[in-house]
Amino acid sequence: MRDQLRPVLAAVLALVFPGLGHLVLRRWGRALLWHVTIVGGGVALLTLYDVDASGSVTAPTEAAAALPTDVALPIALLSVLSAADAYLVGRAAVAERKRSDATAAAIRRRASSADDDGPSVGSPVDALTSADGEPLQVECPSCGKETDAELDFCHWCTEPLPWDDAESVTPD
């Protein structure tokens, strides 16, 4: 449930302060990019339309206007786009985490069923070979392409596979 609320929280925070939603998602580069884009764009538009810091327009024809729509509309649109991006990035992270957990669970199930059916094996990866001795193909949680189960990383995207950590810790 907490993972489901994280994208919504990121979107709300991105509306409150530019880049804050992406910081919650630990996407530092995107946070900086959105912050610089929105704040820099706002400053550039305020300079272009000659709006002073107190909120009044210095042009004599538009006295006491808070912000011209030519300035407020792009800033609001960029803020909404930032919030939508934070929401979509958060949803993608939740889906990736679920896919990774499902892949790791499937590997553990295959390893335990192989242990129950045949002789004991040294590691879960050893149990993931077919009857001919060929390694089974599993889906990489990062890129989604098929890779050999006996590798510790995906040979397509070079990301470590979830069972790599489980094997590196061996009891004494």
What attributes does this structure have?
172 residues; mainly alpha; 2 domains; two-stranded antiparallel ribbon; 2 strands
Would you kindly provide a written description of the structure presented here, covering whatever features stand out?
- The chain contains 5 helices and 2 strands; from the N terminus they run H-H-H-H-E-E-H.
- Helix 3 runs antiparallel to helix 4 (69-117).
- It has a two-stranded antiparallel ribbon with strand order 1-2.
- With 172 residues, the chain is mainly α.
- 56% of the residues lie in helices and 3% in strands.
Q: Could you write a compact summary of the structure shown?
A:
The chain is mainly alpha-helical and 172 residues long. The protein contains 5 helices and 2 strands; from the N terminus they run H-H-H-H-E-E-H.
Largest sheet, described in full? Answer: 2 strands, antiparallel
Distance between the termini: 37 Å
Mean residue pLDDT: 76
Number of helices: 5
How many distinct beta strands? 2
> Helix amount, in percent?
55-70%
Radius of gyration using CA atoms only: 26 Å
**β-sheet strand percentage:** under 5%
Question: Could you give the order of strands across the largest sheet?
Answer: 1-2
| Class computed from helices, strands and strand pairing | mainly alpha
Number of domains in the coordinates? 2
Low-confidence stretches: 60-64, 120-127, 166-172
SSE order: HHHHEEH
The global form is elongated
